[in-house]
Each structure stands twice: as structure tokens, then as C-alpha cells.
Design goal:
single chain, mainly beta, 5-stranded antiparallel β-sheet, 11 strands, globular, binds calcium ion
Length: 190
Amino acid sequence: MKKNILKLTLLFLVSLSLSAMDSIGSSVRLLNQEVVMSEVSTSSANVSFKQKKEGRRLDVTIDSAFLSSDWVPHSFTFTPSASGRVNIEFRGTKGAPENLYIAYDSLTAEGAVLRNGSFEDFAPEKPNPKFWWGGFKQEQVIKHSEHAQSGSTFVLTRYGQGVRTNMQVTANQPVTISYYIRRVTLAPAK
Ligand SMILES: [Ca+2]
């Protein structure tokens, strides 16, 4: 009996230290110098908000503790004070181990215009999904219909290697951003 308890304790410690290393969260950043984003809310308990620049920058974070290796939907809502193009970036949080990524797919904006949120459209001869740019590399655009949340393409991101686009918002029209994320661990390069 004592032996079994010891084994269980050891197992628990091992899994604890593994999850402590597993530290990458989801970070979505919205920015427009002219637009104040207010009435920020979410129906998910795992989403947290931070507003900067007097409400003109909104950081939306999901802690690593709540990330799954399967696709999980999240959403949040805000109301813009003016019409304009809000820059939105989807990425991972700071300080993650090298082989950890946050995958995004099926991004939609109700009440705003966000283009190519499933990353399926490409201009001829261009490696990036249409309307998306940022610090990500070509190999972070994954074409794999079994692993994509929708269609056949999704993106892997990290801090400094996110995907960004401009979305058109209308004054006082609430916007709900919905997205699917999953945590992806890549085998180290040989
Ligand atoms: Ca897709």
C-alpha cells in the first residue's frame, strides 16, 4: 500500500514539472490610435483582458493552463468608439519553449469585416494567406486538411511570430471576435 502511494506521488510530481515547462498562452492584440474599445466582455472564464493607451489597445490573453492540444473555440466582444480599421494580431505569449506554438483557425468577426479568417485564400504565387502579414515564417502556414479546424489551412504562431490583419469596424457597433486555438508541440529539429 505504501509503495503505491509513493508511486502516485512521483507520477504527480513528474506531471507537475512537465506542465510548468509547458508555458505558452494565447495572446490577441487589437490596436487603433483613434478608436477606443469599450464594453469588453467574454462568455469564457478563461479569457482575460488588459487595456492600454486609454482603451485604444486591447490585449486578450488565455493562460497556458487553459490550452488544449485539441481545437477549442473562444470569443470576446467589444464596442468601438469610432469607425476605422483596427489592427488585430493573433500570437503566442512571451517566453515559451522553442518547440511550442499556438495554432489558430476559423477566425470570424461578427459586427466587423475580417477577411480570410480560415487562411484558405492565397494570391497567385504568394506564400502568405491573403490579407495576413506579420513575423511568421512560411513553414508556420500549415496545409493539412485533417489537422485544420476548417478547410485545409491553419497557422502556427509564437510571440514575435504572429499573424495580423486590419479589420473594418463601425462606430458603436459591437464586435464579437471568435477563434479556435490549440497548443502544438513540434518535435525538435534534427
Ligand atoms: Ca482553415
